[in-house]
Design goal:
single chain, mainly alpha, 2 helices, about 25% helix
Amino acid sequence: MYPQQYPQTSQAPPPYQNNMHCNEPSVGYFRPAEERMEDFQQLVARYEINHTFATKLRVLEGYEIVFICDDSGSMNTPLGDLSGPFDKLPSR
């Protein structure tokens, strides 16, 4: 190894803390159903969401939604030019 690149530390690492409740919402997070419904109705009106889709969205209320966005160059490829890594493998 290169000692100048990875200097030795004389300190121990910080202790591990097992927090079993890290994903639970805080106490102040919960709001009455009336407030949540009012906010949802405002969202539906703002974005002009039709009734059928709004009903389907309402089912997702208890879930945490995460968006993963890819801004890589492959996202600019036209759909007709798609090829996967297995397309180039020789076949028997």
